[in-house]
Specification:
CATH class of the largest domain: Alpha Beta
CATH architecture of the largest domain: 3-Layer(aba) Sandwich
CATH superfamily of the largest domain: Glycogen Phosphorylase B
Number of strands: 12
Number of domains: 2
CATH topology of the largest domain: Rossmann fold
Strand content: 15-25%
Length: 373
């Protein structure tokens, strides 16, 4: 049995890219045969064609386990179709799901029947147990394994020069430091976060903010809206924008702060919360399944997603209530030891390798002629 990985580049600095890089370092029997898609525009298209030709030459000559991270968007699904069709040849497919929106693809009327059939033939890996039931709703007999993601350690990080004292840092140690360490997006709740932090500091600065992340457009806001919100915040001396940083630097920024906020509307398994838990810092998060699943017993303050006033109230509680702040800090420090063990890269390596080896051992074993309608 041979192990083949079909990889879409670029993107090793993204959450999906970080996980993929770790998977490719696993010592699978016989080693990996890696087929990559690179470039942009016409270069990307021809690279995709070459990759399909290469992977079919490999896959049709021997029994294989083919690992890939499928897109959850309709156009991306069409891109991935040739890989899905390998399940009708001599390949066992392992599809690593990196988002909470796969059910959206499975219920699209135009292609839902085809997507359900093709995903049914794969062995699915998801990073959180809250993602399992929404998939089973559409594919009741789907084979799903759970393998939680891991903390990217800061030990090998280069010095984070942006953290040296700046005008915005004056008096910071006397104030609570809030950290934003995720993409700057409306679906992440950044606009609500911006409104709440401005209200909190309206009369006089009572807290400090360090923001690291790339501003992105999404279904709720255009890039210009996010840029305008960032520009307005950067006019304040209590707000420091660090731009897009490496995951290692993001962890160091997180560990140097007091509170991480993630007021998002939907999440798979947010790296920002994993970093906060392992660093032992306080957390304010929207009350959604993805955040609840990753936090579990770790102490945190929750509020309804999209409710700016509720978010601000949680912030005020930490800023002005020293007893609450001290109690949370102590509990978070205790919870960080559990989180570090839970999200260790060694644990991820062990579990993911076991899944791949089991898929190789058991083979497809499914009668593909009996795919459910």
């Amino acid at each position: 049995m041979r192990f083949i990985a079909w990889i879409i580049e670029p993107g090793f600095n993204t959450g999906q890219g970080i996980v993929t890089q770790r998977v490719l370092s696993l010592p699978v029997p016989g080693g990996w045969r890696i087929v990559r898609v690179r470039g942009a525009g016409f270069t990307y298209f021809f690279s995709w064609l070459r990759s399909i030709f290469k992977i079919y030459c490999l896959a049709l000559s021997k029994d294989n386990v083919v690992y890939f991270a499928p897109s959850r968007a309709p156009l991306g699904f069409l891109r991935d179709l040739p890989i899905f069709f390998l399940q009708f040849a001599r390949s066992s497919l392992v599809a690593h799901i990196h988002g909470a929106d796969l059910p959206n693809l499975l219920e699209r009327r135009a292609i839902s029947s085809l997507t359900r059939k093709l995903f049914w033939g794969c062995h699915l890996i998801v990073p959180s147990d809250h993602l399992k039931n929404p998939i089973l709703k559409h594919i009741p007999s789907a084979r799903i394994s759970i393998c939680e993601n891991f903390l990217v350690s800061s030990e090998s990080a280069s010095p984070c020069h942006n953290l040296h004292p700046s005008p915005a840092d004056f008096g910071r140690k006397k104030r609570v430091c809030f950290v934003w360490n995720s993409n700057v997006m409306a679906t992440k709740g950044f606009l609500q976060f911006a409104d709440a932090i401005v209200n909190l500091n309206k009369e006089k600065p009572v807290c400090f903010v360090r923001c690291a992340g790339r501003p992105l457009a999404d279904a709720l806001a255009r890039a210009g809206d996010i840029g305008a919100a960032l520009t307005a915040l950067r006019a304040h001396d209590w707000f420091l924008y660090l731009g897009e940083v490496s995951p290692e630097e993001a962890y160091r920024i997180t560990a140097d702060g007091d509170v991480v906020c993630l007021p998002s509307y939907s999440e798979c398994q947010p790296l920002s919360l994993i970093q906060a838990m392992c660093a032992g810092v306080m957390i304010i998060a929207s009350d959604i399944p993805g955040n609840r699943a990753v936090l579990k017993d770790y102490p945190a303050l929750f509020f309804p997603a999209g409710e700016t006033e509720e978010l601000e109230e949680c912030m005020r509680g930490i800023v002005f209530n020293a007893d609450l702040r001290g109690e949370l800090r102590q509990k978070c420090q205790q919870g960080s030891a559990i989180a570090r063990d839970r999200f260790s890269s060694e644990r991820f390596n062990r579990e993911l390798l076991a899944i791949l080896v089991e898929v190789a051992r058991s083979g497809r074993k499914r009668d593909l002629a009996s795919i459910p309608s």
